């Protein structure tokens, strides 16, 4: 099965357009003020307006207020929500949009229990555990910690780049991969050549 590809942390319309042109299935917009890839509403609107049809737009939040999520949804054409904090399943599903739940992986974490706690999520996104950070750190984790029989589709993120993506797709049973810092020229600024190499690597490794 084809591995789906999301390029996250898009801050510029031209980067979103290039990601789509290269074959990304989805782009991610970060609505979290502490992130260097945080976007304002107007910025997000400009990115979304530039995208071609059939590219999924994912909005990323970390422990947001309900009002902030509702404001984003009211102003931006968002397809999927992605929650990176300690949000409950009840909170995640309350916006009546498809959602992904991110978990930060470290030894001892029961990923099967984490998946079971969010039974209606579209997927479980696994990221590296870094104290005080919620994604975008460029840090990998031990993929051997990932079980093969999760109840939810598995999305791998955390330190992926154009150098290790083939190995990741070959080793782990994945529904999708998610990359941000691994295809950047600078924080929030994507590198077209690295995006191309990443997408090509994911596609060819999945064949």
Outline the secondary-structure elements.
Layout: E1 4-7, H1 13-22, E2 26-30, H2 41-50, E3 56-61, H3 66-75, E4 80-83, H4 89-93, E5 99-105, H5 111-116, E6 123-128, E7 154-156, H6 165-171, E8 176-179, E9 184-186, E10 189-190, H7 192-205
Parallel strand pairs: 1-2, 1-8, 2-3, 3-4, 4-5, 5-6, 6-7, 7-8
Antiparallel strand pairs: 9-10
Helix pairs in contact: 1-2, 1-7, 6-7
Write structural notes for this entry.
With 207 residues, the protein is an alpha/beta fold. It has one domain (4-205): Aldolase class I (TIM Barrel). Helices cover 30% and strands 21% of the residues. The protein is built from seven helices and ten strands. The chain has helices at 13-22, 41-50, 66-75, 89-93, 111-116, 165-171, 192-205, and strands at residues 4-7, 26-30, 56-61, 80-83, 99-105, 123-128, 154-156, 176-179, 184-186, 189-190. An eight-stranded parallel beta barrel has the order 1-2-3-4-5-6-7-8. A hairpin with a 2-residue loop joins strand 9 and strand 10 (189-190). Helix 1 (13-22) runs parallel beside helix 7. The longest helix has 14 residues, at 192-205. It is globular. The termini are close together. The mean pLDDT is 92.
């Amino acid at each position: 099965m084809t591995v789906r590809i999301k390029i996250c942390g898009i801050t510029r319309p031209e980067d979103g357009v290039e990601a789509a042109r290269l074959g990304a299935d989805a782009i991610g917009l970060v609505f979290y003020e502490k992130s260097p890839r945080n976007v304002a509403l107007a910025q997000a609107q400009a990115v979304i307006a530039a995208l071609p049809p059939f590219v999924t737009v994912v909005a990323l939040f970390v422990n947001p207020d309900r009002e902030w999520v509702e404001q984003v949804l009211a102003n931006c054409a968002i397809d999927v929500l992605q929650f990176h904090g300690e949000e409950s399943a009840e909170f995640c599903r309350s916006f009546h949009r498809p959602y992904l739940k991110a978990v930060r992986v470290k030894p001892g974490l029961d990923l099967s229990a984490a998946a079971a706690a969010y039974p209606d999520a579209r997927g479980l996104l696994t990221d590296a555990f870094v104290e005080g950070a919620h994604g975008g750190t460029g840090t990998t984790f031990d993929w051997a910690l990932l079980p093969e029989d999760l109840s939810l589709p598995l999305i791998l993120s955390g330190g992926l780049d154009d150098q290790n993506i083939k190995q990741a797709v070959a080793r782990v049973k994945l529904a999708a991969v998610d990359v941000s810092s691994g295809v950047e020229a600078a924080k929030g600024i994507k590198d077209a050549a690295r995006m191309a190499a990443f997408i090509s690597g994911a596609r060819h490794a999945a064949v």
